[in-house]
Structure formats: C-alpha cells, structure tokens
Amino acid sequence: MQGVEFHVYSCTWCPVTFAVEQDCEDQHEVKCPICHSDEYVEDEGMGEMDITPTKK
Ligand SMILES: [Zn+2]
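Above: the input record for the complex with zinc ion. Below: its predicted structure, written as tokens.
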C-alpha cells in the first residue's frame, strides 16, 4: 500500500473541491475544473490518499 499526498483546493465560485497530486509540477497554476479559472481557487491544505493496489 502506498500513501499519495495530494494538495486539496476548492473553488469559492463553484461548489467544488478537488485534489491535485503533490508531485504535479503545475501546482502554481491550478485551475478550477468547472470554471477553468484560478481566481477563485483556495488552498485547502494537504491531503493523503491511500492507493490500494487491485487485488488479484
Ligand atoms: Zn470554479
């Protein structure tokens, strides 16, 4: 099992919260997936997600 760190953002304009992988290099230009604007994107902090490999 591997924990992957995500950076959580939310848009104050749209009712949406989304996460970007911490390794993503585009961290500085995160855009809302709905309005495609970075104007209303707020940093919600870090999050962690457990990636469980598919069991065979
Ligand atoms: Zn938005």
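Notes for the reader.
Strands lie at 2-11, 16-21, 41-51.
The chain has one domain: 2-51.
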